[in-house]
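Reproducibility note. Readers wishing to regenerate the assembly model reported in the main text can use the exact inputs given here. Chain order matters: entities are listed in the order in which they were concatenated for prediction.
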Amino acid sequence: MQRIHNEKSINLTLSLIYGIVILFIMAELTPAFTLVLAALCLWNFILTLMNKSKPGALLANILAGLCLVLLLYDIGFSDSVTLFVAMLILSSLFKLLQAKSKKHYQTIVLLSFFSLSTVYLFSQSIIATLSVSALYVLNFAALALIEAKHNLKIASKQSLKMLFIALPVAVFLLLFLPKLPAFWQLPGPKLAKTGLSESVNPFDIAKLSNSDELVFRAKLATANPPSAPYYWRAIIHDEFDGSTWLVSDLLKSQQRKQSTSTTNTASDTQYSIIAEPSAKPWLFGLNKAYSTNRNVKTTEQGLLIRKRYLSNNINYQVKSTALDNSQLTKLQRYQNTKLTDAQQNNLRSQQLAFDLFKKNDTDRAFFSALTEYFANQGFSYTLTPEPMTSQDTIDEFMFSNKRGFCGHYASAAAFMFRAVGIPARVVSGYLGGELNEKDDYLSVYQYDAHAWVEVHIADEGWQIFDATAVVSPERLNGSLSQMQSLNNEFTNNLEFSLLRFNQIPGFNWLRLNLENLDYKWTNWVLGFDQQKQSSLLKALFGNNQLWKISLFVILTVIGIFIVYFIYLNWPKKSAESEHRLAQDFMNIANWCDKNGLNHADNLTPQQYLRQASEHFPEKKSYLLQFAQLYSDVRYKGDEFTEQRKKHSHDLVKLIKAKTKRIL
Amino acid sequence: MSFIKRLRKTNGVSAFVTIKNSLFSKFLKNKHTGDTLLLKHNTIYVLPSKMGAGFLFVAILNFILGINYQNNLILAMAYLMLVMLVLAILIGYSNVKGVKISFKTKHDDYSPISPRLHFDISTTKLCQSFMMIYKNSQVACLDSIDKSSNVTVALPYTHRGCFALERIKLLSHYPFGLVSVWSYMQINETVYVYPEQIDATKNDNLVSEADNSQGDLKRKNGNEEFDSLADHQHGMGLQRVSWKHYAKTQQLMVKEFINFASTPMTYDYALLQGNTESRLSQLSFFITQAHINDHPYALKLNNEFYPMAKGRDHLVSCLIALSRFTTHSESDDATHS
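Running the prediction on these inputs yields the following structure tokens for the assembly.
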């Protein structure tokens, strides 16, 4: 068993690395397990700081067993990726807690190279990337420390230097090495993110949990951009069970297969979307959308669904046409009008619907009448509605409460359409988005989530009915964050974020710029996929020149290595070869020349210094001291010790300093 | 059964060793033989170390992870690790390139002190984490060599004997321990571990019965008288150091006694008692003492005879003879004693 020199600093470094890794994956773990990991980390940290010995093998193994049981109980087998990462980190921490020999530490450092990469499975933001990169430097430093005797600072410097050389080569490889398709399908990590849900039941929610998490960005094409308002459709809910709107099994089965009808017309609007990692496969499109991206499935209803890589950003091109205007089949009509058990409740609303329908006998007229009803009956928009719990929630909302957010209006309206036999469904998704004028893209946040109704009107097809738009028309334009009237309510609802300081101009500027930086990062770095790479390569090398690209990549990389190798072995005519004192002398001579010392050429340093001491009487003693030192070291052959080095350095400083005291 | 197995096993091992050695000598051609070795392109060998192999494995794991999750950042990390490994190879090679190792002298010693080799190591630039390995054990480790450095290597021999120097492995794991950069140095030299000096006169049991009849070997207990103080010399024990003097002057002085048995003497292996090692140890003591006292002496070891002489060279040749000494009937010897 080989002991190592820097055990303390290696321990501290590794504890720090794992501590920060835990911080990053904390959101995916349960609080209990996070606490366990953090405690292990802290334990090792404190043991090292206090120079206490590490726990015995028996104790550590028993603890490890207990923690494993906790892990399996806490996280379970359903989320295999999180389980795997948690196990990896747990085992690394226990190994660290018991590590004594060189081999142990080497194993842990190797493991942490893998653990660090797993952070990227959960988070790929700029901050995560910067932190993980810093940890990489530290990890390499720990690796160097295992081998050598010098301290952490030198080791970090060295590894930083090496990584700086290695990074451009790695980036080059990433850019030009043709990307391989996935070898096999791995389960994606289940991200703990808020988002849309398959069931909409607004009535038991007292407060919309608003988060300012980015959901997606949409870059509108210059050629044929879609126009506002932007109803980003994600999920269609076509079944109502009396309180909740759900996705019916029928619809689910229809969505399993790819839509075949891709009618391509010139009037299609175009845009591209970069969606953030999500826990759910729903993607976003306007009206009836379709995408040709390989990882995106287009459904019959014009919805987009992500095929894989939920934990990654996805960048896809979309075209949109108007919603279907064809006649519904019998099954579709039945599916979109059925109320089943829901018919027994909310009788007042049903009665209202019947009355309105009687007065306006066509579907279109009823549509307008209902819009007018919402506009004129004192409804108001709020983010903090009172929860409604009775059997007849819709009645309660329609006749007594009259305050609610999008879900209330959509749910009530769809119910009333169905009550009179007009096909209607609730659609959830996002509305609007914050326009970034610099780069002309829309950012859509979690708080832009919205629900509305799609109604099928004979001869016209599916139409959007959004009662919220009537109640609070400004909601249609822009993002919720830009709405003045709701600002207080909105910011109070938000979790802590920069948005809270929206009113302060500096903060808003900062927020928008960070936003923009993040957009570029997501678009260019994270979104650099096979398609983008092949178009880049095509632009550089022309079509189908795989051998050219390979040759180029291999030759460039070999060239870089050769240049580096030559640099390493270049005989260094560095400062080392020239004596430090000679440099110091040159330094002094330069200063003297600059300050008007006239002297003959080809003076020896001793003669020169003597002459200088006469010319600068105030510096005489320093110059003579330096001359003495110079002759001692250079001519008498005394050793140039650290002390002399410092002395010489100080003398140079004193000579060059301005002499105010004397003047 | 087990005996046969063991025999086979040892045969197998020795066969493997001979094959390995012959392969080594074939491939390495004598470039590593000699007292001076300059590390350059044809004498340096570079491969990823075990740690480096593990590192490569993790890099590949990262690559697979990056590909399967189509994750650019993980992929970049995988590439970064690969590039670092290549850089480590380049740096590791450049680190030891130009290092010149010169074997200066050897220093044999009495058992259990191991023989030592003195080296001069010089480089044109800084060389870090330089190790010397002899018979699979690390015998020297230099954290950094700047310009030049003297190294003393203690060989792992503590028992009496003569040992032809084996190949010395020069190894560096710089940087990060990811690569092994190594070379060999084969010095044509033999080192000796002299028998331990054992003063048999302290132990009456060891006094030879043949003492009186032969008359050559005479040791008289208690018939020495204090004579003078002399400088402590290498090989003298600490028994006779004048500690009083040491306390005053910090100088190691030895009390000299007049040895009445200062007549020239022949020490004969055959006349001593005990097993081979203890007899050799006694002889080692006798001749060393005789040398220190500047008495001439002769040594008889079965068939070998070293005639009466004195001086450093005589002592060394006698001690070497003791180190190499083997009896053909060692097993008999062991059973007798």
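We highlight two features of this model. Residues 7-176 of chain A form one domain. Chain A has three domains: 7-176, 202-506, 575-656.
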